[in-house]
Description:
Elements: E1 11-17, H1 21-35, E2 38-44, H2 46-54, E3 61-65, H3 66-74, E4 84-89, E5 91-96, H4 107-116, E6 120-123, H5 127-138, H6 142-146, E7 149-152, H7 158-162, E8 168-172, H8 173-176, E9 182-187, E10 196-202, H9 209-219, H10 222-230, E11 234-235
Parallel strand pairs: 1-2, 1-3, 6-7, 6-8
Antiparallel strand pairs: 3-10, 4-10, 4-11, 5-8, 5-9
Amino acid sequence: MATQPLSTTPRLNILSTMALRHALNELIPTFTAASGIQVEIEYGATAHLSERIRAGARGDLLLAVAGSVDELINEDILKTGSRVDLVSSDVAMAVALSAPVPDISSQDAFIATLKAARSIAFSKQGASGMYFASLIKRLGLDEEVRAKATVLPEGLTGALVANGEVELAVQQMSELMQVPGINIFGKLPPAVQQSTVFSVGVFKESTQGAAVTRLIQFLQTSDAMRAFAQQGLDPV
Length: 236
């Protein structure tokens, strides 16, 4: 991942989805050490980031769900043609380390697990949470699940399992992996799974063209992809 430092020391400001946080926290210091480019990152759920951007928040790069990047390109906030797909993540489930492992090997088993769970946590604004909300509605479980659910505005649902507040957490694999002390026992079965692609887009106002290009190239290297994979993110 070696790269030659620029003659000046530019600074990049990034808005990024929480799903990429652990991987970026590992990768960015390596990038800065090699290039001399300083990077500041603000993390949040994609929906929350999109709200902030539409209200005027700006940076050099956005790392978010591919569909949201496309929307902001169409709204003339991100540069046309700047979207680059990086990684994808599946939705997974977790319980406490000492808890029995539920069966989610099929759609029927998944439904039975949701019905049997005493409490469930999912997020309101994250891609996985919005998908899960649409899924339980499609399966006719919306009222039953919501009656025992904790819906986080944003954040890591696995933390509620780790501290004993809820029995079952649903979120992107990469976000569940950011929480120690839980058992990520499986991904949703194929019949109800949705993979989310995370992409990068460049803000129209960014003046750091060379630094932006260098970072995007860095995030596509094989070493970067290995770091993403270690955090539950699959190369696109």
